[in-house]
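Hey Z.,

So I finally got round to the pyridoxal-5'-phosphate thing we talked about over coffee. Here's the setup:
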Amino acid sequence: MADPKTPPFRPETLAISHGWDPEDALRSAKPPIFMTATFTYPSAQTAKDVHRAYFDGDGPEAGGALHIYSRLGHPGLDILEARLAAIDGAEAALAYCSGMAAHTAVALAYLKPGEGVVHGRPFYSGVDGLFNEIMPQFGAHGTAWTDGCDEANMWAACEAAMAKGPVALLAAESPGNPTAALVDLDLLVKIAGRIEAAQGRRPIVMVDNTLLGPFHQRPIEHGVDLVVTSLTKYCAGHSDLLAGAISGRKDLIAPLKLQRLTWGNHLDPYNAWLVLRSLETVHIRTERAMENALAVAEWLRAHPKVAGVTYLGFTPEGTAARAVFERQCRGAGSTFSFHLHGGEAEAFRMLDQLRLLKMAVNLGGSNTLICHSASTTHYAVSSENRLASGITDGTIRLSVGLEHVDDIIADLAQAFEVV
Ligand SMILES: Cc1ncc(COP(=O)(O)O)c(C=O)c1O
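And the result:
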């Protein structure tokens, strides 16, 4: 075991203090919030040098702490991005005003007209829409595979995409929400190599790591190029802000940073500070939430009114998905679905009876959130596609939080009585 006083530190340690030096602000133990739109210069030459450092990456101010204007970057972003990269084990990171802003940044930077993205399905609906409805308006095309643990299924989607044009991006969300479908990240990277052999150019491999977060799944260690995380969920963890991040290879992050100053979708100083604060505890919050989730999932599985529970920890032994789960995931997460016997009427009766659990569509927060998938998160999805993803009219998504687990179960138990 490494000496905890000697770098490189473990991610849990990096989450507490990496990127902040008290020398930078009156020996303040914690970073202040730099609530400013712009930054001043002691001389005209310094102003020029700071711009040179930002745009050309060289000169006397290169690597320095001076800033220009908060849309281009600010001290809170510097600290947060250094910490995010360190936790993910990535070369660099960027923080955005939402998870969707981060996904959009990747798509706009790395999908050109005529090029394609091959991706897993299910993918968060906003991202699926980005790939298949928005990007086609810019001449790019999206193609989906349906089984991220099956090479033949994934490769068939890649071949169909290459028939339309070069594949520039290979994208996956794992585990998928709310089906817990896994994508084998080693296989994903292998597929990128096969695409390179077939078309003479390796696509960028991007993984959405929102559902398990940086402490329970480590995509960079599998050779993934870019990791996108909706920080809104587990990393910020209190259902009180929106933020997103991209971490990965420096040469891919640098162009994104330059484009961000044009899109203006950076994370602002106050929310950057809040996320930084939340990162200190994300590992213990997610561990506790996962412990609670396991107990709730087991209780639900044994309940006579429940037809089934789609929980990563219950992935059947002997399946390809189980092997991927054991190799790739350090926990089973705390967001999952259960399926009531019956349909919308039974689900609504149960939901309306809840006293402690809150009905809302976010996940990964400190409070347990619950929603009826078909009429909320998947409202805009056709019933045929919903059923294909395993979502019935009796499907309910649960994001288990940090309340005492007995109170969560007691609330569900009394609500089940009216079903
Ligand atoms: C897996 C996943 N990725 C990305 C997003 C988008 O993140 P945000 O809501 O922060 O824009 C979500 C939102 O629900 C999500 O669940």
